[in-house]
Amino acid sequence: MGAQKGKDLLLKAGDGAGGFTTIMGLRTRSLTFGAATVDVTDADSDGGWRELLSGGGIRHASVAGTGVFKDAASDSLAQTLFFSGDARDWQVVVPGFGTLAGPFQITSLAYAGDYQGEVTFNLALESAGAIGFTAG
Predict the structure, then answer these.
(1) What are the 10-residue block averages of pLDDT along the chain, 136 residues in total?
(2) pTM, whole model, 2 decimals?
(3) Which end of the chain is more exposed for a tag (fewer CB within 10 A), N or C?
């Protein structure tokens, strides 16, 4: 994968009717995958080296973004989803890589503003179920 424009990494929230809406005017965003390990080391482990259970553990995806709200509808959607605590289908479009889709829950929503600047927000999502991937 060659260099890609950061602005092309999109975060889209499900509208509840099968469609997706690009959420907010993100200026920075990140996507992180993680997997917990399951240690199965015992007294018979070769040389005392740790052994891990292949395919075991819990996988997760985390998404974070900072930016400005682009319109009242995306602001309202983010607030509604945060305060309801509902997991909603989201899409994360990574240019040159593909699209991840599945349920995420907003785990953090923060607002900030400088005296002579615009109001900005920080948003964090955590996966809340199986995440699918479509290459593209």
Answers:
(1) 58 84 78 92 92 90 87 83 92 86 95 87 94 90
(2) 0.81
(3) N
